[in-house]
Amino acid sequence: MRKMLNRVPEVTIYFWTIKILATTVGETAADFLALTLNLGLGVTSYIMGGLLLFVLFNQFRLKRYVPVSYWLVVVLASIVGTLITDRLVDEFGVSLMTTNIVFSIALLVVFTLWYLSEKTLAMHSINTAKRELYYWVAILLTFALGTSTGDYLAEASGLGYAQAALVFGTLIAAIAAGYYYLQMNAVLAFWLAYILTRPFGASIGDLLSQPTKNGGFGWGTTGTSMLFLSIITSLVIYLSLKRKKPALQPIDRQN
């Protein structure tokens, strides 16, 4: 019963694949809406924020994990998290160093309140509305923090998108090695990897979408967003069908 009531997916290779793809879409889709369509950061933020609240309302109505609903929230949270950081930096003049510090502190506060209230931060125990609320607030902050960290390393420091992706990818690999070979705490490893996959995916998104003169491949935000959204959609459909597939019944050889 506890497993059936869990509102989030199991942490598998599919989970991490879609998560990284979603973070890439968060970066490129935000740029596509705000810059390519010329909606501006403010209007785009209000539209995406409203959509996020709408799908979150539906998500909280559910009593178990539903792939389409869950991953739609993740994609929109990725876009909104990106827009939060972009607006603070581009419109309000807040430095990336400051946003990194502020979002890190905010995320630490959320984790502290969550643990004091529920005595766990485990991914597999998101089985109440209260825990899910903490979970989604933390997710949104990881996207905002990841955007800030990725932009700081790739752009402000002058490292470049490819080199930034390599740095974040190496850190994720180190966490995976610590978990599998050095008995690193599973909850700590999960959240560290979750935070780092955001700037990793964002750096990949920028690398693919930005013009060649800026160090990118020049695919554009439209092409990159559509490509990764198509892959996400295909994987979510596959996972949805897989969940609905009835289990094979054992053969009764006595009859």
Automatic annotation (TrEMBL):
Key words, A-Z: Membrane, Plasmid, Transmembrane, Transmembrane helix
Domain of life: Bacteria
Xref: Pfam families: DUF347
InterPro entries reported for this sequence: DUF347
Record carries keyword Methyltransferase: no
Membrane-traversing stretches: 32-56, 68-85, 97-117, 133-154, 160-181, 188-205, 217-241
Protein name as it appears in the record: Integral membrane protein
Species of the source: Chroococcidiopsis thermalis (strain PCC 7203)
Lineage: Bacteria, Bacillati, Cyanobacteriota, Cyanophyceae, Chroococcidiopsidales
